[in-house]
TrEMBL record:
Region called Disordered, residue ranges: 1-27
PANTHER family: ALCOHOL O-ACETYLTRANSFERASE 1-RELATED (PTHR28037)
GO molecular function, one term: acyltransferase activity
Keywords: Acyltransferase, Transferase
Domain of life: Eukaryota
UniProt cross-references to InterPro entries, sorted A to Z: Alcohol_O-acetyltransferase (IPR052058), CAT-like_dom_sf (IPR023213), PapA_C (IPR031641)
Domain Phthiocerol/phthiodiolone dimycocerosyl transferase C-terminal span(s) in chain numbering: 261-421
Protein name stated in the entry: Phthiocerol/phthiodiolone dimycocerosyl transferase C-terminal domain-containing protein
Biological source species: Petrolisthes cinctipes
Amino acid sequence: MAGVSLKKVKQEGGAQDVGEGHEAPCEDTWGIEVEPGEWVRTLNSMETVFAWGGRHGCFNTVTTLWFTSPLPLHPHLIRHALTLLAQQVKVLQLHVSWRWLRLWFRRMKHVIVDFRVDDRAVGEVVSDLVGSRYNMERGPLWRARLVPLPAPPDRHRAVLVLAVHHTITDGLSNMILSRDLLHLINTTLLPHGPAPTLSPHRPIITLTNMVKPGDWPYILSILYKKMSTSILTSKNKTIYFGGALPCPSASCPPVPPVNRFLHTELSAATTTALLAQCRAAEVTMHAVLLAVAQVALVRVAGRRGGVDVAGTEVTICNCVNFRRYMPPHLAHTPGCFISLEDREVPASADDEKDVWGLVTRLNTSLRHSLGPGRIPVKNTPLLRMITLMVVGLNRALARMNRPHRCDSHIITTNMGNLSELLPGTCSAGPVQVAHMVRTVSSEMACNPFMLASHTFRGRLLLSLDYYTNKITPAAASQVFYCFVSMMTCLGNHGNLTHDGPDADTTCPNAHHDQSTFTYTTPPQDYHAFNNEQYFTCEDDHDDHNYDKYNYNHDHNHNQQDLP
């Protein structure tokens, strides 16, 4: 199909919520090569799962961007940039409809920009968007809120909360959307600046089946395992370490589950030290994150339960960018193209003392799984069926006020080093992104925690999403505190035994979604979402040339969910 030039679109909705119509100054780039109102393609496995969850207010992705600029960040400027983005990035014009007993993407007849200014605290806005519902059949499947912040005399500051449903996006797409939006804001801010244009990205209209006949014995074995451990029986006793990690008590009447999250960032010095250690050990940062998360989880469970949890299998599920198996020219294609890779590693009492040994084993296993093993490819035929059954079962259990089924301890999403994909600065203008946080609502999924990570402007950000129907806030805070303390100790001392952290206190450097949870006695250095420290990177940021090897062994995968 030949590309089509971008046409002027009609806007619908109120003046406050919907941007004004603008003629796009550049050609179609992320091009969905069909006319408005026409069908695009069927949904893949993960897109189908996310679309089903979207009907119940689940699987919303939220990217929170802290903007700083010497020029005013007026709402009409942000609205104009969002309108241009929606016109040029056709993924933002998609909705989901039934056709021939299958779910299809369909392009909306008109571009709608759901944008407004919100004067509430940033945490409240994020909480609202991450738990909001979309009309999957009508669209749009995204929305944005601008939160103005007090500014010093020489700077203007604001926070943009960009929510896009997982059906049409993933971690990579959200980073590209953020980068392109920053570019559009900068080019439209300057009165005589260049016409705003985006880099071309080739869409995927047809999906290729990569599963080979020899893969089916593995697929059927995994199907049997998932059915026996997650559907027909419960794995919760293993996931909660025999009750050492508390599952919230049932309430009457049932209370809807809430997605909450803790986040913090390591210092530039600690991040640099961790990267240097990864380089020396020839391992990826992701392997380090997996190893430390496992040790922290086992330590907290052991101390809370007062029992020896050594030998318990810790199951960690990794989100993998499926574009790694596609041709290079599709590396930045828009949409949701992820798969899953999970691993079960027996906990050992020696893991904490010899954490680098655990890191090396995990790194070797990951390389084989993502490379010759092709586990994410082999898992694709099962994702739709298994996930829909588990998510559907969890929704039914929620209505009956029963505990959810879980089949993994933690799911991870790692965007690696964003120095190239989303550097935070733009040569076209003065607006910068000083800080960025990602979160996803997955309260109906099969895990009590989601660990998100990325390195932005020289600092490693760590975020732990948890769900009130699966884990208590106190236990989640302890797990996160122990994890962050261990990561800091590893970066500063190269091991986990130097002045070992105490897992029985609240994480002192974590920022908590205070709209849904507040500490009984907040730590002295407790920070809200709009704390000043989020803007310090523009003053002390150095353009470190990090070796990409620390995040992956293949430079083509530097900006993927799982390096």
